[in-house]
Design a protein that fits this description.
Pfam families: rve_3. This is Integrase catalytic domain-containing protein. One of its GO terms (molecular function) is nucleic acid binding. The chain is mainly α and about 130 residues long. The chain has a two-stranded parallel ribbon. The protein is globular, with a radius of gyration of 16 Å. The N and C termini lie far apart (about 45 Å). About 5% of the residues are buried.
Length: about 130
């Protein structure tokens, strides 16, 4: 996949997240690996316009992204179950459903005191 296509994909995903969450401000941090798509001017401009601080993992330090690796492992184990998608549109639909209808709203996370991310965020924002 060409570098500009990856940059377009992550920019689209970030814009979609910004619209769906409607949260802006200096308290937000976006952490990623050191992929060129996350360092592109377009991507950095979107983050800056939204007031989001960018964070990148250190070079050659896989532990900086351990939480992402853990999520991807969960995604593969609980959603894909060693399967694959034939069409991109199927992948988008299934990923959205898994993340928004299960992972964020119903799946309990030990690191959040056995609450879903949505429940944790709601309680956090009440304080």
């Amino acid at each position: 996949m060409a570098s500009h296509m990856r940059a377009d994909l992550v920019c689209d995903a970030l814009n979609q997240a910004l619209v769906s969450r409607q949260r802006k401000g200096s308290s937000l941090i976006f952490h990623s690996d050191r992929g060129s798509q996350y360092g592109s001017k377009t991507y950095r401009d979107i983050l800056q316009q939204a007031g989001i601080t960018q964070s990148m993992s250190r070079r050659a330090n896989p532990y900086d992204n351990a939480w992402t690796e853990s999520f991807m492992s969960t995604l593969k184990r609980e959603m894909l179950q060693d399967g694959c998608f034939i069409e991109d549109c199927d992948a988008r639909t299934e990923l959205f459903t898994f993340i928004e209808s299960y992972y964020n709203t119903r799946r309990k996370h030990s690191s959040l005191g056995y609450q879903s991310p949505s429940k944790f965020e709601t309680l956090f924002n009440q304080n």
